[in-house]
Amino acid sequence: MLIFHHLFLGLAAGIILAVLLSNKWAVLYAGVGAIIPDLLDKPLGQILLSDSINYGRIYAHTLTLAVILIIIGLLIWYKYRKNILLLCIGAGVLIHQLGDVMWETPVNWFWPFLGPFPPSSEVYPPIPDGYLPYLYLASWILAVIAGTAVIVVLYRYLGQYLAKGKMVKRILTGTGMILMGAGTILLVKYLIWDLFLTGPWANYFGTMYLHELLSISEWIYGLSSLMLILLILDYPVRFSETTKKRIISICGAGILTVSLLLLLFIGLGFPVDEVYGENMWRLAAVAGLFFGGIVFLFLGNRIWELPDDRIHTKK
């Protein structure tokens, strides 16, 4: 799955689109598009169709879908100019497919022109018992982070009711926020641990989860993506344009440095990112970091000068 890998590459491609289209929201739109294929196909192919296809790269991983989204997006952009949502999502979907080297499974990528999706014979080994305590702890940590994020977002929009107004309204608002946060924690923990890591699909999703937790490159992808998203949303701190440029440049330089160090360690035979299994995939992860670092360093500071337009029609 490696969702942070795809998110990071989508955001990096979005920076390029933002500069080309003069709209900084292209960054987030492309980032969303880059994770859509896995969010759709993994549950569909690995859960709902596990008895037939048993493969997580089907409909949303087809070139057909990416081309349709991009063509419709181009037509909408040509007419409305500032309406870039579908175009950028389509570009993000295509970036995801390229990151998954879908050309190596041409029947799936060029569906339906080469026939139906072939069933997969992949068998996923069970999660080693030694990793289960770490996965359990990680599931709770992610759940608490998700619940805290919900409370923080709610506070941003409902904080006025906690600061002023009648006491009853304050109590109800605060109680509602806490309940929403607690509910999110329990839901996320249930989805991650009880459903995906100990349920009938634990072998596949547990392996993917381990890849996310044990990969150095995935941590860099995830932290860099989070930093960029928060800067664009001006949340929770509003930095000046100069500060944002400095942060994105430092981040880009850091990503480049890490990518070169990982390349050196891999070349020297150190056990770096062993979860990828083959050297080809380790090098692909390094290449993704290098590409993103270049984009962050040389184009990232330009997005803060772009208009803050989302979707507006042409007058």
TrEMBL record:
Pfam short name (any one): YdjM
InterPro entries in the cross-refs? YdjM-like
What's the superkingdom here? Archaea
The entry lists its GO molecular-function terms as: hydrolase activity
Q: Where are the transmembrane segments?
A: 58-77, 84-103, 134-158, 170-193, 213-235, 247-268, 280-300
Q: Does the keyword Phosphoprotein apply?
A: no
Keywords carried by this UniProt record: Hydrolase, Membrane, Transmembrane, Transmembrane helix
Q: What is this protein called?
A: Membrane-bound metal-dependent hydrolase
